[in-house]
């Protein structure tokens, strides 16, 4: 029998999928046997959200080589688009799974379109302009949503940018997006299983893109723009492709996020600059361009502040110290040398040689 | 091939170790609290909890009441202890802490002590749910929280699922109490907005009113909407409505100029005191002297650093609590709070202090025992809440409807000679 030969890439990908599926199986066993704390059980869906965000940002930062500081903004677009749809259709589509699937598609597509529109002018430029524009975008989208009022009644949808009274709703009216008060009463459709399915979907999209012809073109742009251009690669097209896909995946994560909480508001805390940086930290600590690393670092860094709750007032302090130490451990040249010197693999090799 | 297997194994073991760590964290809290958790042991049905019980017993001998049955009520609280809204969360934490200490010293509720655990939510809806789950692992039976409206709404969805009794000290949005297991200590936003409009209208305080509010804040925009809605039925007219957002709240000269040009005699400020102090200073600088009228967010304006309190003379506010009030209960609360935490209590501290006493009253009314299940306690307290009437710091003869909103008279205060005084 011929042995199935796998390329190095395929093996690598299989390990990544394997980790996700294994984590899912372990968690399911723990849930079913009751060996799980409510804290961890409540964290499962947010973990999926952050993993998807980290993986999708890694596509922009690691594979395309552009810096994006507004990833939370795309998440915000997806979250509000998806939650708006679910609230609007709550009594029309009764099957929650179907409604949620459509919400995910709507959220992903709207975030993708916004990403495309932003990328179109900016990605034609060279330099750090994408970082500047996405930074502004993240702030603008938050402010827009904070003045947006949308309500529905028997005669249809009403829009306003002033306040909820000027919507002029009839008696049976229902304010869906209420400015700063956001959307309340989103059905809680997000489950851990759907979250894992979405992670795997994200991984399939991102990994296949990376290892495809298009992916190699994208990476060639990252490595040497002039050389890529000289062999006839359409730079703007490939940049836009990677960036819009990344935005759409962030929108998908946003939908998952909004359907896990019953109240959704665009505050600086959840969709602001700090959140975008947080996602970037996941990517940088996990290794730029390393998809599996992003998954692991997103999981660890999301769990850490919650597990440190026992330290009460010191937990955010400890968390930041851990961040600094991890950053140094991963990236400081001295430590990298040290790690190479004393790495397990090398120690094993040495003992082998001595024998 | 071998390498792949090894790496898979390593990854798997890493994941299990990590998750095992998480699984324990819940029961570790039980240990930290040094508590005797006999009542809730059945809830936390994992083996770890049973293991730590023996350790916990050793540490809690001094806390155990001699006369009591050894069972304890577990009250959890949630609020922002870090970040921009930390002032409110810490006030809630300390207020509840003070009340629980007092109750425990006086012999507890029906002879049972109360245990208390406060968790930080950073004023983030998602973190608030995490905090709630942490408290659930700890064995919480009643919740005082969350502090802010958005977080309360998010947590209320979870607590309704578990049928756990929730009393929010300061979540003022109506959406907080849509579930029947949630009750409020503070006024709802509509109550405040409508109350303010009716007060101005029925007392003929002014005919032309301007509003300056924070459109990015749930509390502020909520009150404004109800105020504007009620104003249509009142004998005064809103001549100018100006908004600001959290990102530009230092310069109010434009808003004030518009109000001045429109000839407003009174400016309604449904905002917090930090911005209000700036508005008062800037109005004074442009020689504009309207009356100012605020809601409970203005409480604390006399303690703002570098603010000339003379400017606040004549400011009127509807607030349930003022630290300078002369009645006995407030005086003893303020002095005890200052002694314990070195800070003047604000309305949030008073709200959560009251919340604990309300829970006490409800337990005494219903006879819920610590050994009851969380859901049973909730059902009993839900029924009891509509029957009790509590005299607290933030209102006399507070009573509740089954819907969860509180009935109490708003107190109109005026600042006279640098002190709050009740307008009769």
How does this model look, in words?
The complex is a heterodimer of chains A (355) and B (424). Chain A has 355 residues and is mainly alpha-helical. Chain A has one domain (8-32, 42-273). Chain A has helices at 8-33, 38-64, 71-88, 96-122, 129-146, 192-210, 213-223, 225-230, 235-258, 268-271, 273-286, 291-307, 315-331, 333-341, 344-354; strands at residues 149-153, 156-160, 174-178, 183-184, 263-264. Chain A starts with 7 loop residues before the first helix and ends with a helix. The model of chain A has no long low-confidence stretch (mean pLDDT 89). Chain B is an alpha/beta fold and 424 residues long. Chain B has three domains: 1-64, no CATH class; 73-187 and 325-409, Response regulator (Rossmann fold, 3-Layer(aba) Sandwich); 190-319, Rossmann fold (3-Layer(aba) Sandwich). Chain B contains twelve helices and 15 strands. In chain B, strands 7-6-8-9-10-14-15 form a seven-stranded mixed sheet, with helices on both faces. Chain B has a five-stranded parallel sheet with strand order 2-1-3-4-5, sandwiched between helices. In chain B, a hairpin with a 5-residue loop joins strand 12 and strand 13 (406-407). In chain B, helix 1 (2-32) packs parallel to helix 2 and helix 11 packs across helix 12 (374-385). The longest helix of chain B has 31 residues, at 2-32. The radius of gyration of chain B is 24 Å and the shape is elongated. Chain B starts with a helix and ends with a strand. The relative contact order of chain B is 0.11. The interface between A and B is large, with 55 and 61 residues. Chain A: The chain crosses the membrane at residues 12-31, 43-65, 72-90, 96-118, 130-151, 190-210, 277-304, 316-333. Chain A: This is Branched-chain amino acid ABC transporter permease.
């Amino acid at each position: 029998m011929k042995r199935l030969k796998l390329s190095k890439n395929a093996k690598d990908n299989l390990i990544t999928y394997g980790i996700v599926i294994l984590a899912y199986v372990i968690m399911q066993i723990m849930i079913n046997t009751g060996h799980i704390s409510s804290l961890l059980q409540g964290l499962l869906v947010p973990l999926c959200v952050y993993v998807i965000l980290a993986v999708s940002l890694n596509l922009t930062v690691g594979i395309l080589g552009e810096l994006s500081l507004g990833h939370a903004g795309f998440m915000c677009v997806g979250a509000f688009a998806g939650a708006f749809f679910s609230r609007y259709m709550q009594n029309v589509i009764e099957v929650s799974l179907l409604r949620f699937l459509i919400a995910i598609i709507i959220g992903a597509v709207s975030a993708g379109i916004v990403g495309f529109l932003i990328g179109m002018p900016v990605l034609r430029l060279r330099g750090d302009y994408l970082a500047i524009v996405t930074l502004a975008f993240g702030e603008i989208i938050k402010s827009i949503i904070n003045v947006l009022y949308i309500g529905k009644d028997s005669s249809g949808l009403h829009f306003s940018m002033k306040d909820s009274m000027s919507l002029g709703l009839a008696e049976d009216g229902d304010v869906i997006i209420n400015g700063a008060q956001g959307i309340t009463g989103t059905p809680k459709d997000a489950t851990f299983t759907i979250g894992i399915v979405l992670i795997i979907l994200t991984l399939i999209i991102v990994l296949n893109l990376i290892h495809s012809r298009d992916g190699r073109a994208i990476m060639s742009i990252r490595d040497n723009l002039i050389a890529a251009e000289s062999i006839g690669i359409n730079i703007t097209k490939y940049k836009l492709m990677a960036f819009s896909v990344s935005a759409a995946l962030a929108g998908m994560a946003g939908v998952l996020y909004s359907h896990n909480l019953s109240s959704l508001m665009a505050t600086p805390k959840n969709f602001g600059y700090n959140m975008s940086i947080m996602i970037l930290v996941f990517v940088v600590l996990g290794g730029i361009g390393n998809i599996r690393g992003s998954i692991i670092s997103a999981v660890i860094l999301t769990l850490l502040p919650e597990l440190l709750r026992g330290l009460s007032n010191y937990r955010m302090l400890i968390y930041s110290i851990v961040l600094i130490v991890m950053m140094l451990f991963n990236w400081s040249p001295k430590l990298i040398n040290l790690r190479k010197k004393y790495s397990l693999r090398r120690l094993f090799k040495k003992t082998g040689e001595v024998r | 091939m071998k390498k792949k297997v090894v790496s898979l194994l390593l990854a798997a073991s890493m994941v299990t170790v990590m998750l095992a760590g998480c699984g324990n964290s819940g029961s570790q809290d039980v240990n930290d609290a040094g508590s005797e958790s006999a009542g809730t042991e059945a809830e936390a049905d994992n083996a770890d909890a049973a293991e730590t019980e023996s350790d916990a017993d050793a540490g809690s001998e001094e806390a155990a009441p001699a006369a009591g049955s050894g069972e304890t009520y577990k009250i959890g609280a949630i609020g922002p202890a870090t970040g921009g809204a930390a002032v409110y969360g810490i006030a809630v934490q300390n207020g509840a802490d003070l009340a629980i200490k007092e109750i425990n010293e006086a012999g507890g509720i029906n002879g049972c002590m109360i245990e208390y655990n406060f968790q930080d939510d950073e004023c983030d809806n998602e973190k608030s749910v995490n905090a709630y789950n942490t408290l659930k692992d700890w064995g919480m039976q009643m919740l005082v929280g969350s502090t802010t409206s958005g977080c309360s709404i998010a947590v209320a969805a979870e607590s309704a699922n578990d049928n756990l009794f929730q009393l929010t000290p300061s979540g003022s949005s109506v959406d907080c109490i849509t579930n029947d297991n949630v009750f409020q200590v503070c006024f709802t936003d509509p109550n405040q907005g409508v109350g303010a409009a009716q007060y101005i209208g029925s007392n003929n305080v002014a005919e032309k009113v301007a509003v300056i509010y924070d459109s990015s804040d749930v509390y502020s925009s909520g009150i404004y909407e109800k105020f504007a809605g009620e104003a249509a039925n009142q004998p005064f007219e809103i001549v100018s409505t100006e908004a600001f957002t959290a990102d530009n709240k230092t310069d109010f000269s434009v808003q004030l100029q518009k109000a001045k040009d429109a000839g407003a005699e009174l400016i309604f400020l449904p905002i917090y005191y930090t911005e209000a102090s700036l508005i008062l200073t800037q109005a004074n600088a442009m020689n504009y002297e309207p009356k100012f009228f605020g809601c409970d967010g203005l409480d604390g304006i006399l303690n703002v650093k570098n603010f000339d309190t003379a400017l606040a003379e004549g400011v009127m506010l509807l607030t349930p609590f003022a630290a300078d009030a002369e009645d006995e209960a407030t005086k003893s609360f303020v002095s005890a709070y200052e002694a314990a935490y070195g800070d003047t209590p604000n309305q949030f501290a008073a709200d959560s202090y009251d919340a604990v006493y309300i829970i006490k009253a409800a337990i005494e009314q219903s006879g819920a025992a610590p050994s009851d299940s969380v859901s049973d306690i909730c059902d009993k307290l839900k029924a009891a809440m509509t029957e009790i009437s509590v005299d607290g710091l933030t209102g006399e003869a507070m009573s509740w409807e089954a819907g969860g909103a509180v009935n109490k008279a708003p107190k109109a205060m005026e600042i006279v000679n640098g002190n709050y005084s009740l307008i009769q």
